[in-house]
């Protein structure tokens, strides 16, 4: 998902959701698949990687991880 801000002083945001893996792997995927090119005209771009592990134990049911980084 790509969020385009209505105001130019706000950052654009790219969010990728993935089953299994790590949030860093998801952020790497955003970069490697050139999703950033779609918002390259924005001064600030946030990359958000969210993962879900369906194999979590009963105590960790629906465990999610999230990482947010500013693209350089």
Order of helix and strand elements from N to C terminus: EEHEE
Total beta strand runs:
4
Which structural class matches the secondary elements?
A: mainly beta
Q: How would you state the average pLDDT, rounded?
A: 89
Pick out the low-confidence regions. Answer: none
Question: How are the strands of the biggest sheet laid out side by side?
Answer: 1-2-3-4
Beta-strand content bin? 35-45%
The coarse silhouette is: elongated
**What is the radius of gyration?**
14 Å
Number of helices: 1
How would you sum up the major sheet?
4 strands, mixed
Helix fraction bin:
10-25%
Q: What is the first-to-last residue Cα distance?
A: 19 Å
List the main descriptive attributes of the protein structure presented here:
about 70 residues; mainly beta; four-stranded mixed sheet; 1 helix; 4 strands; about 15% helix; elongated
Explain this structure.
This protein is mainly β and 72 residues long. Helices cover 14% and strands 38% of the residues. It has one helix and four strands. It has one helix at residues 23-32; strands at residues 2-3, 12-19, 45-53, 63-70. Strands 1-2-3-4 form a four-stranded mixed beta sheet, covered by helices on one side. It is elongated and about 45 Å long. The chain starts with a strand and ends with a strand.
